[in-house]
Write a structure and sequence with these properties.
The complex is a heterodimer of chains A (about 400) and B (about 240).
Chain A (H helix, E strand, L loop, with lengths): L1 H25 E4 L4 E4 L1 H35 L6 H7 L1 H21 L2 H26 L8 H18 L3 H20 L7 H21 L1 H4 L20 H27 L2 H11 L1 H6 L4 H27 L9 H14 L4 H17 L7 H15 L27
Helix pairs in contact in A: 1-2, 3-4, 4-10, 5-10, 5-13, 5-14, 5-15, 6-7, 6-8, 6-13, 7-13, 10-13, 11-13, 14-15
Chain B lengths: L1 E10 L2 E11 L4 E6 L5 H9 L6 E6 L2 E2 L5 H7 L1 E4 L11 H8 L6 H14 L1 H5 L10 H13 L5 E5 L7 H18 L2 E6 L2 H7 L2 E6 L2 E7 H6 L1 H8 L2
Parallel strand pairs in B: 3-8, 3-9, 6-7, 7-8
Antiparallel strand pairs in B: 1-2, 1-4, 4-5, 9-10
Helix pairs in contact in B: 3-6
Classes of the chains: A mainly alpha (about 400), B alpha/beta (about 240).
């Protein structure tokens, strides 16, 4: 009985779609010969396609709802595979070592092209983890994050161009300048939140890009800066291939460092203040949390990683121009965080892998890239709103003293 | 303990508090009653720095505190339970309590205090691993009060603790308020619309009308005052 109803519904959907797409799919006007071509077969395709899609879609939604009900009646959460992998040491130690081996062996097994892609992925992991502090933990929607990335990249490019400073000297400078710009952005937006904050940060990102594009004397405008030196290895000149491998390992190291620091931050006092700020600002202030300081540190610490990632980016490509730092880039980073799972470190890594690797390997469909992107996000938000790997927050535990038992232990 | 002299507060151009004078001594339960929009919550917000007053003086234990930032005021020992509870919905009960002790550095004592809270509110102990947002209204109010207590305030502000709760739960909450006041000698400043219960709990009371304090007396006297009876007690 329900099946018949479902079919009926899908039929209605397909009829509706056939009607909607009628003008563009069926009618074709040839203005030269002044004839109208009726492509009725297209209508058939649209009908069948939308019928099947809507049927499958509703089937999965039903499955999801069933799963939810089952969880509730069971009274305990059924743990997903990804979650078990995070929780159980027997599962994650072999998994982690396998990942580590793969990471170390990667540049020696695969071609330089693949290694370069992997460096990009790692840069985005770093950017994602940085943005995760601002968006995932502190709950401040930042759409201009790419500006800090640009600051880092231009810091290295300009200091290298004018003063010949090396990669390792500029890395901390880039990080510091990123943090400084984070605070610079933080001050005017202290009172804002939600949509207003998003708009202002969006503007900030564009301002930085426009400055770089138009201030020719400073940044050489749209023609960019070329011949940026690659990182040196104790003064030894490396071949192109070796230097790529070298950058790869630098990036692996930096990513590990980022993961370590962000993980520590998450469980620290300031991390808890960020989470509280995300949940309720007024309550936060009533508890004596300094709103200004907390917001500013979130912006500054988030931007630090973008600054560092920018330095590596400039060193990797040896050429930068403002076109690399458009709003679309900010959105990609934001998508990594949201798709991967807000606030979750493994999620951000998974998100970066999916969002950077997929377009690389889907070059055949490059015209439909954004379409696939969008569809994926929609499907994701319906079926896994928490992201690919949902954040399993380490909760603060409180154990009662011995000898004190609760009456109703759950 | 707290002395407010000629306090004036504004929201933009709107003059909300007009020359408010309030005096609170240590160990008292003071209540501020009044109709909707009289300025009760604004009074609390002005004292705790969330709405900085435009003129007037606030002294806490002799020191002026007007114009200070909110976190500084909390660190002095003034803590508030905001209107509408405002617990952190996605943090567990324990984490909510832990946030209350944010400014404290003595981790060991904090742990003891948490135990004390769980003794005071056995219901919260049962639910200590649950997210704050999944608690019922009454439990959330208990959590909000406990969270404020975790800061070990010497002066506790309660903004409408009876808001949206069942009469039985309200009674329970007010019993706890009295208990807190007696046991740890915490001074309590209670802002309430439920004048009946507030005056039964408090030692002294102030009546606020349109941003002005119109009456101030002992709670018993206010309770038997004809004007108050008519306006707020519905007798």
């Amino acid at each position: 009985m329900t099946n018949l109803k479902e079919i009926q519904r899908s039929l209605l959907v397909s009829l509706w779609f056939m009607f909607l797409t009628f003008p563009i799919m069926v009618i074709r006007v040839n203005p030269l010969e002044k004839v109208v071509i009726w492509r009725w077969y297209n209508m058939l395709y649209v009908g069948i396609g939308s019928f099947l899609l809507s049927f499958v879609w509703r089937y999965f939604i039903r499955q999801k709802e069933l799963g939810k009900k089952k969880n509730e009646t069971d009274g305990q959460k059924s743990f997903s595979l990804s979650r078990r992998a995070v929780d159980d040491p027997r599962a994650y130690i072999p998994l982690l070592s396998a990942v580590a081996c793969f990471t170390i062996a990667f540049p020696f097994i695969f071609s330089m092209y693949q290694t370069n892609i992997m460096i990009t992925v790692l840069i985005y992991v770093m950017l994602g983890l940085g943005l995760n502090i601002v968006v995932g933990l502190a709950g401040l929607l930042d759409l201009g994050y790419v500006a800090f990335y640009a600051v880092g990249a231009y810091t290295y490019a300009l200091l290298n161009f004018h003063y010949g400073l090396g990669f390792w000297t500029v890395l901390p400078i880039g990080a510091a300048l990123g943090a400084l710009f984070g605070i610079l952005l933080g001050f005017p937006v202290l009172r804002l939140r939600g949509d207003y904050l998003a708009i202002v940060t969006l503007g900030f990102g564009e301002i930085i890009r426009l400055i770089l594009e138009n201030w020719n004397e400073f940044s050489q405008g749209p023609s960019g800066i070329a011949n940026i030196s690659k990182p040196g290895f104790f003064g030894i000149h490396l071949s192109l291939q070796n230097s790529t491998i070298y950058i790869y390992f630098i990036m692996v190291g930096l990513t590990l460092f980022t993961i370590l620091v962000v993980n520590r931050l998450q469980n620290s006092r300031i991390g808890r203040a960020w989470i509280a700020l995300r949940e309720d600002e007024v309550a936060c202030q009533a508890m004596g949390i300094d709103k200004r300081k907390t917001k500013l540190t979130a912006f500054a610490l988030g931007a630090t990683w973008a600054g560092m990632a920018g330095v590596v980016f400039a060193a990797k490509t040896t050429f930068i121009n403002p076109a690399s730092f458009t709003i679309l880039e900010s959105i990609v980073i934001l998508c990594i965080v949201v798709l991967g799972g807000m606030g979750s470190i493994t999620g951000v890594i998974a998100g970066a892998l999916v969002l950077i690797l997929l377009p690389e390997y889907l070059r055949a469909f490059s015209e439909y890239r954004l379409l696939i992107f969008g569809t994926m996000l929609v499907i994701m938000m319906v079926f896994r709103p928490g992201g690919i790997i949902e954040n399993v927050r380490r909760t603060y535990e409180f154990e009662l003293k011995e000898g004190k038992e609760l009456k109703n232990e759950d | 303990m707290l002395k407010i002299v000629g306090l004036n507060s504004y929201y933009g151009n709107i003059h909300v508090l007009k020359d408010v004078n309030i005096d609170i001594s240590e160990g008292e339960i003071i209540t501020l009653i009044g109709a909707n929009g009289a300025g009760k919550t604004t009074t609390l917000m002005s004292i705790s720095g969330l709405v900085p007053p435009r003129s007037g003086e606030i002294y806490f234990e002799g020191k002026p505190i007007q114009g200070m930032v909110p976190d500084k005021i909390v660190s002095l020992g003034i803590c508030q339970v905001p209107e509408g509870r405002r617990i952190f919905p996605y943090l567990t009960v324990t984490e909510n309590l832990d946030m209350g002790a944010f400014l404290r550095k003595d981790k060991r004592v904090v742990k003891n205090d948490m135990e004390h809270i769980f003794d005071l509110f056995p219901l919260l102990a049962e639910r200590r691993r649950q997210a704050g947002g999944t608690l019922s209204g009454g439990e959330q109010q208990m959590l909000a009060i406990s969270r404020a207590l975790m800061a070990r305030p010497r002066l506790l502000f309660l903004d409408e603790p009876s808001l949206g709760l069942a009469p039985l739960v309200i009674k329970q909450i007010f019993e706890i308020i009295t208990k807190i006041n007696k046991e740890s000698n915490t001074t309590i400043f209670l802002v309430e619309q439920n004048a009946n219960l507030a005056l039964k709990t408090a030692h002294r009371g102030y009546v606020m009308e349109n941003g002005r304090i119109t009456l101030s007396d002992s709670a018993e006297n206010l309770f038997s005052n004809e004007a108050v009876k008519k306006a707020y007690l519905g007798l």
